[in-house]
């Protein structure tokens, strides 16, 4: 039995580019059968120095048994991304249109920038980079808070053909040093610091340490560090303990202020025309071996794909105000804060602060202030915010959010309770939710809902457990499933895999033996052909690129995620293949259990990991975060256990439910299950926890382990 379907409302449909499933189907079909024509139409909106030539738009090899893997798109064309984002829009009459509303950490700090002004500043900074000897192909590392200079810097690099590598400004100096060295960055651009909530972060100090560590540990020298003088111009979020300038070092030989780089520079800077397949940026993503992977994205394909996904997935129209809460340090920030909105001449909000400062209504008050029409955030944020409101009483006091039309979700499965809350309380049951599945590697959305076309399903929690599919006989991953979430669907009459793949994307479900699963079933999510926005290689590691993504199933790009197709043809991403569990031979998605736990009104968030078990192989170990002020007791454990037994089955009953004050999350909000698995077994060798938003939570979780879970001593 399927969970309830929610149809797009008139509020959404009347504006939509794709107002029906039929329209989507036609376009999708065309994107596969007449791929060249399809992308030519997209390309026509852009300015080319050398236009793409007909014939052989997409050249590729996905099959490692036939030679090296490669993807080339519009290979002989030449263009400049920055020119297309700024000059082209100014020429098209959008010079006075606001590109960004910038909202600072303090509600007292805000500004706006038009397309024309952005172009001026980008050119000035690009000239500054050139004056300092940065040239096409040079790598520029960026370690910045959410300020306009981060965008300006990325675009200035694109303008001169330099390759930026943004490192999320929450990474430690060790992590930054490793990335600086791996990318062989010549220059590091940063800010003195920034406030997030009541905490001040001194980025320049982290950069000082990282540059030093890069030199001593990796023998890599960063020639220069450019620093935005940001702290002086904003309202402090708390009290300053010392003079700002005393917080970091200043090296006269290598450090230079951003405003000094701009001094005397012209606001005219001719773009460097680059080849379609020249690199645009490198972005590091974590790899299972621990060494980060430098994902390389190139120019034309990335731009076309970012632009097209933004337009259709968010249904962006000229007067809309769009807001993506992601940090520029992640792929979501690259594609959907910077490149895609600007490619569509969009007006966006860029927010420096946190959802909780000065109060927990900050997100909603920003939506209200700028009359945001598209809001794109992560389930973790939704769950965290939900916890501050009483879901039951219906008396949520929120500002007017009626400007909203499309709500986006990204990064992890969204559990049914969070989905429903988002849909009801934020979207007021009239907005479409687009659950966008993609990866750093995919460059843009690959499987997603479309606002006007896709009937939505909130999640899988009400369903029977998904392991009862015949495909289980052939699909045998080493462990069980991690998590299940609703993604998207296409009523699947033809039995072909297409759960709302974006245009040009051809997903398949394969079993362990590489045999395609048609109809309901679960297996590995792979893609049978390239799309323009996908990664091209790993920085200086083509071998690893082929090994990680193409060796398991020759001929396919392997996402590393599991997927399940239900009876209605919906595709549900079940999570990373490496984060799964298997209880008594039952493949299990932890997300499903998490969804059930989180459906209890007292629970704010839950995470489930496998714990080795003598009889069952693995057992469920659950971490439960309660809503503020609520008491964790034996009664609650009993109720939750019963709830899981009821909703899924006795075999899924948790062995342990532990009270968690919080969960170990990266600063981008990803739960680090590796650490939870260690806590579950009482193993204090948790490894590196420096990338956690709050490393202190780990010790608290160890202390909170229930008595029976503690290792026996003596
Ligand atoms: C997961 C983030 C379920 C998935 C854009 C993927 C999701 C990994 C979703 C990539 C979603 C991302 N539903 N899972 N809507 N979006 N994921 O590289 O496991 O930071 O492989 O890119 O996040 O994470 P990354």
Low-confidence segments, given as residue ranges, are 460-498
Query: Strand pairing plus helix content: what structural class?
Result: alpha/beta
Number of helices: 19
Please report the distance between the alpha carbons of the first and last residues: 51 Å
Shape: globular
Helix content: 25-40%
Average pLDDT number: 88
Spell out which ligands are present: 5'-O-[(S)-ethoxy(hydroxy)phosphoryl]adenosine
Percentage of residues in DSSP E strands: 15-25%
The counted number of beta strands is: 31
In spatial order, strands of the major sheet run 5-4-17-16-18-19-20
Largest sheet descriptor: 7 strands, mixed
What radius of gyration results from the CA coordinates? Answer: 25 Å
Question: How would you describe this structure to a colleague?
Answer:
29% of the residues lie in helices and 21% in strands. The chain has 714 residues and is an alpha/beta fold. Helix 2 crosses helix 3, helix 5 packs across helix 6 and helix 13 crosses helix 14. The longest helix is centred in the N-terminal third of the chain and has 17 residues. It is globular, with a radius of gyration of 25 Å. The site of 5'-O-[(S)-ethoxy(hydroxy)phosphoryl]adenosine has 23 residues, from helix 11, strand 19, strand 20, strand 25 and strand 26. 5'-O-[(S)-ethoxy(hydroxy)phosphoryl]adenosine binds next to helix 11, strand 19, strand 20, strand 25 and strand 26. This is acetate--CoA ligase.
């Amino acid at each position: 039995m399927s969970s309830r379907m929610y149809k797009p409302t008139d509020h959404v449909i009347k504006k939509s580019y794709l107002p029906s499933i039929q329209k989507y189907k036609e376009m999708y079909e065309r994107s596969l059968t007449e791929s060249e024509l399809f992308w030519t139409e997209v390309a026509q909106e852009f300015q080319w120095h050398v236009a793409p030539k007909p014939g052989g738009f997409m050249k590729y090899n996905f099959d490692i048994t036939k030679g090296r893997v490669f993807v080339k798109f519009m290979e002989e064309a030449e263009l400049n991304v920055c020119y297309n984002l700024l000059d082209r829009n100014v020429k098209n009459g959008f010079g006075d249109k606001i590109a960004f509303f910038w909202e600072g950490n303090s509600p007292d700090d805000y500004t706006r920038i038009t397309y024309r002004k952005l172009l001026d500043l980008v050119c000035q900074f690009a000239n500054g980079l050139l004056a300092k000897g940065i040239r096409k192909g040079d790598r520029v590392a960026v370690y910045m808070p959410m300020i306009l200079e981060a965008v300006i810097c990325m675009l200035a690099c694109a303008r001169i053909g330099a390759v930026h590598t943004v490192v999320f400004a929450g990474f430690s100096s060790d992590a930054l040093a490793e990335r600086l060295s791996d990318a062989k960055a010549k220059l590091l651009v940063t800010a003195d610091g920034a406030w997030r909530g009541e905490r001040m972060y001194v980025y320049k100090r982290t950069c000082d340490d990282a540059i030093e560590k890069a030199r001593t540990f990796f023998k890599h020298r960063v020639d220069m560090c450019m620093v935005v003088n940001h702290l002086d111009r904003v309202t402090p979020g708390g009290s300053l303990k010392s003079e700002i300038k005393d917080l970091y070092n200043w090296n006269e030989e290598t450090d230079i202020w951003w405003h000094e780089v701009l001094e005397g520079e012209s606001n005219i800077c001719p773009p460097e025309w680059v080849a379609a397949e020249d690199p645009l940026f490198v972005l590091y993503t974590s790899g299972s071996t621990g060494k980060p992977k430098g994902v390389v994205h190139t120019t034309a394909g990335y731009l076309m794909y970012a632009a097209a996904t933004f337009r259709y997935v968010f249904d962006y129209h000229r007067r809309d105000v769009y807001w993506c809460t992601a940090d520029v340090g992640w792929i979501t920030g690259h594609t959907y804060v910077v490149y895609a909105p600007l490619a569509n001449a969009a007006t966006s909000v860029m927010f420096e602060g946190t959802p909780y400062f000065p109060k927990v209504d900050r997100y909603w008050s920003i939506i209200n202030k700028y009359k945001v029409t598209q809001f794109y955030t992560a389930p973790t944020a939704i769950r965290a915010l939900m916890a501050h409101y009483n879901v039951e009483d219906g008396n949520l006091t929120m500002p007017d959010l009626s400007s909203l039309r499309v709500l986006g979700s990204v990064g992890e499965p969204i559990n049914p309770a969070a989905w429903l809350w988002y849909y009801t309380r934020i979207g007021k049951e009239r907005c479409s939710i687009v659950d966008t599945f993609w990866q750093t590697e995919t460059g843009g959305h690959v499987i997603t809902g479309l606002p006007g076309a896709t009937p939505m399903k909130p999640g899988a929690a009400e369903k029977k457990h998904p392991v009862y599919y015949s495909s289980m006989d052939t699909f045998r991953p080493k462990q069980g499933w991690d998590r299940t979430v609703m993604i998207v669907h296409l009523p699947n009459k033809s039995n072909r895999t297409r759960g709302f793949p974006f245009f040009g994307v051809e997903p398949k479900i394969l079993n362990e033996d590489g045999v395609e699963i048609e109809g309901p079933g679960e297996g590995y999510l792979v893609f049978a052909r390239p799309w323009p926005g996908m990664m091209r290689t790993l920085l200086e590691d083509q071998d690893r690129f082929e090994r990680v993504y193409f060796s398991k199933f020759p001929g396919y790009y392997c996402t590393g995620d599991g997927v399940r197709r239900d009876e209605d043809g919906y595709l549900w991403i079940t999570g990373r293949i490496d984060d799964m569990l298997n209880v008594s031979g039952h493949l299990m998605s932890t997300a499903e259990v998490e969804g059930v736990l989180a459906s209890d009104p007292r629970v704010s968030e839950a995470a489930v990991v496998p714990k080795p078990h003598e009889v069952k192989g693995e057992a469920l170990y659950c971490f439960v975060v309660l809503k503020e002020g609520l008491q964790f007791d034996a009664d609650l454990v009993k109720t939750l256990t019963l709830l899981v037994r009821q909703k899924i089955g006795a075999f899924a009953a948790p062995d342990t439910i532990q009270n968690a004050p919080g969960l170990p999350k990266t600063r981008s909000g990803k739960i680090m299950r590796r650490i939870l698995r260690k806590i579950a077994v009482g193993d204090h060798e948790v490894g590196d926890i420096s990338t956690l938003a709050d490393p202190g939570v780990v010790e608290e979780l160890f202390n909170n382990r229930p008595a029976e879970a503690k290792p026996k001593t003596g």
